[in-house]
Design brief:
Rossmann fold, alpha/beta, 500 residues, globular, 7-stranded mixed β-sheet
Length: 500
């Protein structure tokens, strides 16, 4: 946008926002100088007594269709970043947005506000009431300045790291303002983690905002902090109010601490029956993870803000190749018999599934290429003693590496006999008696859906792997409410971690 246009636009917005006369904002035509993305605009905040910067991405049709109004997505940045960071050196949010628009995403307005180091909350002292500014000044200003659809049914919020906490806090404290909320790698801790945080880390990031600065132990868990912490907000008493918002949160399995906190929240929401979407994918606290997450978050926002009632999730390729199985029901790759070295056997452990389902799952485990000598062998763990059944199933295969894919109830017996395998995979499998420590000489790869009965088992296994230093891959995917397809999707998700 050229400077003269911005000046006119800002003046009109100021007049409109201050007069509160209900008039439609008049946006002049910038003509050929129109740019979709503009940085470092600002509003004068009376609440904070200073300017607050924001950047904005406008729809492609914003100028050509002057009668059209648009939903709004607020996108919050992490600690140490600013209103330009979503489209800075590391994050390229506009590229993702434009690519998704090319695939059918509806046009929306995207606002990137400056968040300082506030976690997007008011300071407990009242010295810097950022959340009040956001709700009482920034949102009305954006609605008065741009052609938004100015109601909660067309307003959503997301953010990464500190911005993830801010998104959760804003939507949980103001469910009347937002329809959807999607924290990405939300930066927060369990109470035990907060109490173990270094003094400098606690004071700088949380104590100054939520109280308890200079304190240790339980004194850090202040009443003001509890008013904003999701663990203390997502409780049965608040269920009717908070479920007005459509919740989605995600975190990478390579995070140092944050997945423990996010996974714990997922377990709490499951226990209390809160509707929500939860995802765990491969990745750490990185821009790549957050951009990938937008691939589902923005379509979900679009779905609900367009009047949808129940987000089905993104389509997943079930990836069940049509391969030839042996008379025993096993699959043996072309190279298995010709190459004596490096042979890999993967056992498909199930608990009395019917033959057709077992054949489908066996095929689902087959890669679409045969780069290594491998075999997939089904085994019914409900028959006989586990070790004897396993020995009989793999007899004659002369393998060098033995892995297992356990599904359903079979997960319990497989986990109890885990020392028999080099690598263990669990797809929608139930576990029991997960110990506090695991051996570091095995790899654990496990995937369930966010509606799975395995949610506590896999959460416990994840924590034990982290605690033990055991190699692992953890995934949580969308449920399609079909048990066989959910298992297949979990197998498909784990395939890039397969030992073959």
């Amino acid at each position: 946008m050229n400077r003269s246009f911005l000046c006119i636009l800002t003046l009109l917005a100021f007049v409109s926002a201050c007069s509160c006369n209900g008039q439609e904002p008049v946006v002049p035509d910038p003509g050929e100088n129109f740019q979709r993305y503009t940085t470092d605009l600002s509003i004068d905040s009376k609440i904070l007594g200073r300017k607050v910067n924001y950047s904005i991405t406008l729809p492609k049709s914003y100028v050509s269709n002057k009668e059209r109004r648009y939903p709004v997505v607020y996108m919050l940045h992490g600690i140490g970043d600013d209103n330009n960071s979503w489209n800075g050196n590391w994050l390229h949010g506009n590229d993702k947005i434009f690519a998704l628009e090319g695939s059918g995403l509806s046009e929306m307005i995207y606002v990137y506000p400056q968040g300082f180091t506030t976690y997007y909350c008011n300071y407990y002292t009242g010295a810097f009431n950022y959340m009040d500014m956001f709700v009482e000044e920034l949102i009305p200003y954006i609605d008065a300045t741009y052609r938004t659809i100015a109601d909660r049914n067309h307003r959503s919020v997301t953010g990464y790291s500190m911005g993830g906490f801010g998104a959760m806090a804003l939507a949980s404290k103001h469910p009347e303002t937002f329809l959807c909320c999607a924290p990405l790698s939300m930066s927060f801790r369990t109470d035990d983690q907060y109490m173990a945080e270094s003094q400098s880390g606690w004071d700088k990031q949380w104590g100054e905002i939520f109280g308890g600065k200079g304190q240790s132990g339980e004194a850090r868990i202040t009443p003001y902090y509890m008013e904003h912490c999701p663990y203390y907000q997502f409780i049965p008493e608040n269920k009717a109010t908070l479920e007005k918002v459509h919740w989605f949160f995600t975190c990478g399995d390579d995070e140092e601490q944050l997945l423990i906190a996010n996974d714990t929240l997922h377990i709490q929401l499951r226990d209390y029956g809160f509707e929500h979407e939860f995802r765990v994918d491969d990745g750490a606290h990185t821009s790549k993870y957050w951009l990938n997450a937008l691939g589902e978050v923005l379509p979900m926002f679009d779905f609900y803000m367009s009047g949808g009632s129940q987000w089905p999730g993104l389509d997943i390729n079930h990836n069940v190749p049509d391969v030839q199985l042996e008379s025993s029901g096993a699959f043996v790759s072309e190279r298995y018999n010709s190459e004596p070295d490096g042979r890999i056997v993967m056992v498909l452990a199930h608990d009395g599934l019917d033959d057709n389902t077992v054949k489908t799952l066996t095929k689902a485990m087959v890669r679409e290429y045969s780069l290594k000598p491998y075999a997939v062998i089904p085994m019914d763990v409900s028959k006989g003693v586990f070790a004897e059944t396993l020995s009989e199933a793999v007899n004659g295969y002369n393998y060098q590496t033995l892995g297992v894919m356990a599904v359903g109830e079979a997960g319990k017996k497989v986990f109890a006999n885990r020392k028999l395998f080099n690598c263990l995979y669990f797809a929608e499998a139930l576990l029991e008696d997960v110990p506090a420590q695991l051996s570091g000489d095995q790899k654990y790869c496990f995937c369930c859906t966010d509606e799975s009965a395995s949610y506590k088992d896999f959460g416990a296994l994840y924590r034990t792997c982290k605690r033990s230093g055991a190699a692992f891959e953890y995934r949580v995917i969308n449920s399609v409410s079909d048990s066989e397809k959910d298992i297949i999707n979990c197998i498909h998700t784990l395939q890039n971690t397969f030992i073959y």
